[in-house]
Amino acid sequence: MAAAPKNITLAELRDRARKGDLNNQELRAYFALDKLHSEAFVPAVRVNYARVDTGGKELSAKRTAALYALATAERKVAPVRRRMRVTTLVARPRVLAEGDSWFNLPDLFYPRDAIDVLRQTHDVVNMAIWSDTIQNMVKQKQYVQKLKA
Questions:
Q1: Which of 118, 108, 142, 117 is CA-nearest to residue 128?
Q2: How many domains are contained in the chain?
Q3: Could you read off the pLDDT of 45-97 as tens digits, one per residue?
Q4: What pTM, to 2 d.p., does this model score?
Q5: For residue 39, what is the DSSP state?
């Protein structure tokens, strides 16, 4: 049995999230589903204060969601293993995903979402975050720079 993840500071958690090197066990130790504030397709994630020393400060739901999204941004869902009938290499279509929970649910707490399935056959850049609104997406236009790239 693997040893439980060690307690860390918020600064260490942010640094590890940026690097994308938190494994599933660590993500489950440092983050938890906030069942009290979650709704259908609008999950709330909280920091596990028993494992993460925040210096007595509480993170807002928005900052916690952003930190969790950063920590899981580079993670790829393992593709389904199938026999390939075509042996030639073909470039995978590129997809930019912007949206809400249909395109990004916390994978440690929920079943696979639409983008998890699409990643099996496509190269996906996912900007989606649960509880985002069309109004916010249009207002911020974060997708424009990604589309240009």
A1: 142
A2: 2
A3: 899 999 999 999 999 888 898 899 888 876 644 444 444 444 445 577 888 88
A4: 0.59
A5: B
